[in-house]
Design goal:
Blueprint lengths: L22 E2 L2 E4 L2 E2 H8 L4 E4 L1 H14 L5 E5 L6 H8 L4 E4 L2 H9 L7 E3 L6 H10 L2 E4 L4 H12 L4 E7 L9 E2 L9 E2 L3 H11 L2 E7 L2 E2 L4 H19 L8 E3 L17 H18 L4 E6 L1 H4 L3 E13 L2 E6 L7 H4 L12 E3 L8 E7 L8 E9 L6 E4 L21 E4 L1
Parallel strand pairs: 4-22, 5-6, 5-15, 6-7, 7-8, 8-9, 9-11, 9-12, 12-14, 14-15, 17-19
Antiparallel strand pairs: 1-2, 2-3, 4-16, 10-13, 16-17, 16-21, 18-21, 19-20
Helix pairs in contact: 5-6, 8-9
The chain binds pyridoxal-5'-phosphate.
Pyridoxal-5'-phosphate (PLP) binds next to strand 15 and helix 10.
């Protein structure tokens, strides 16, 4: 006779706790201030606020977890606010830029040009010349860039520092966005590498190493470890064809943060162990190489909130709508329209009532005349009134700069580092 356990009620998955932010008097604390006070200080809504203390703590925790030999780069496309880049540049070992515009911000922020690298498909000739003039490392994504770099180098009498971005023959499994493996606009296919490396030698460019980036927003340590191992091994094979010893090896990143119900924070321990292994191998096999990982959202995403004010509270056929003064025009990702396949809710709360026990199911929508402008779809939230502050967590990355601010003609949002 088989014993069957009583059917257990399947609990709906919940968001990871947003415990990085404390509560005071029932309000969320951001940058040391109660949210209602911070909103007064900023003087208007909507705004993004990035917490300095959390940014520092994040880098410190990462440094403590990973082997000391691993260098940390910040991929600034995640959050290019100049004050954020300035702060983070002082905490990490280098900045990765993906346009001349980002290069300008990084240089203004005081980042050391020796530790800036410039990746991205479709670099224009003028951008390549700017990179040579600035003395930054160019991650070459196409053979077309080589003669342009050589010409700029000759004209300026400055060396062109290059690494090759490789389009690997594998991908980062289970990633939000895959950026390697198969046909891609990024990097140079592994098969074309020996020829390209020869050309770098012939043109007398300053070869420094390789850049591999297999994907983004990954919460599976085993997948990240596998991609890092494969990246290392691929670089080791390619090094045989290189015109100079490998001095720089960017193993990519892809560390994710929990956005949606059921997602957990990434466990760094297996990744640290795997990197330790690679550090030891590199000491023998690529003795001149410094190993780099490049992270965007993992460094800044959890430190930021998007804050909007509720301007209306409507009930439509029994469903509560909290209408705010900003939405997808400032925060496309939270609306679910930036690379999500199925829309899911970011963690959201009513920031000035976050500790309140009076709760209800409500939707938070922005002011745009489109049903896409949805920040929270039927979530359990503290009971809110007009004037309260709706807060979207996990908003430190791919927020303002990744959103169509002019769409529908509402005011732009502001950003503060607090
Ligand atoms: C976007 C990007 C990153 C940052 O990705 P995150 O998911 O924010 O960590 C890093 N490297 C490259 C090459 C990128 O294109």
């Amino acid at each position: 006779m088989s014993e069957s356990s009583p059917p257990t009620k399947r609990e709906a998955p919940v968001h990871a706790p947003m415990s990085q932010f404390a509560l005071r008097d029932g309000e969320l604390v951001v940058g040391g201030q109660k949210l209602s006070h911070l909103a007064e200080r900023v003087g208007r809504t909507p705004f993004y606020a990035y917490d300095r203390g959390l940014l520092k703590a994040r880098v410190a925790a990462l440094r403590a977890a990973l082997p000391a030999q691993i260098q940390l780069h910040y991929a600034m496309k995640a959050n290019p606010m100049p004050a954020v880049v300035g702060l983070v540049a002082g905490l990490v070992d280098g900045i990765d830029v993906a346009s001349a515009g980002e290069l300008q911000i990084a240089l203004d922020a005081g980042a050391d040009p020796a530790e800036i690298s410039f990746a991205g498909p479709g670099k224009r000739d003028i951008e390549l010349a700017q990179a040579v003039a600035a003395g930054v490392l160019v991650n070459v994504e196409s053979a077309r860039e080589l003669p342009v770099l050589a010409a700029a180098s000759q004209r300026l009498g400055l060396p062109a520092r290059v690494a090759v971005r490789v389009n690997p023959d594998f991908e980062l499994k289970g990633s939000g966005m895959k950026m390697g493996g198969g046909p891609k606009q990024f990097g140079v296919d592994t098969e074309q590498l020996p020829e390209l490396l020869q050309q770098i030698g012939r043109l007398g460019l300053g070869f420094e190493g390789f850049h591999l980036f297999a994907g983004s927003q990954n919460l599976k340590p085993e997948a990240i470890c596998e991609a890092q191992r494969k990246s290392y091994e691929l670089a080791l094979r390619l090094a045989e064809h290189a015109p100079a010893p490998v001095a720089f090896l960017n193993l990519g990143g892809g560390f994710g943060i929990p956005y949606f119900p059921g997602e957990q924070r990434l466990d760094l321990a297996p990744i640290a162990a795997n990197l330790q292994d690679l550090v030891e191998r590199a000491a023998r096999e690529l003795p001149q190489a410094r190993l780099v990982i490049e992270l965007g959202r993992y460094l800044v995403g959890e430190a930021g909130v998007y804050v909007t004010r509720i301007v209306d509270r409507k009930v439509s056929r029994g469903q509560i709508y909290l209408v705010t003064d900003g939405g997808l025009n400032h925060h496309l990702s939270a609306s679910g329209n930036f690379g999500q396949v199925l829309r899911k809710n970011y963690p959201v709360t009513i920031g000035n009532k976050a500790g309140s026990v009076a709760r209800e199911t409500a939707s938070v929508v922005g002011p745009l005349c489109t049903p896409l402008d949805l920040l929270a779809d039927r979530m359990e939230l503290p009971v809110a009134e007009v004037g309260d502050l709706a807060v979207v967590f996990q908003s430190g990355a791919y927020g303002r700069s990744a959103s169509p601010q002019d769409f529908l003609g509402h005011p732009h949002c502001v950003e503060v580092l607090v």
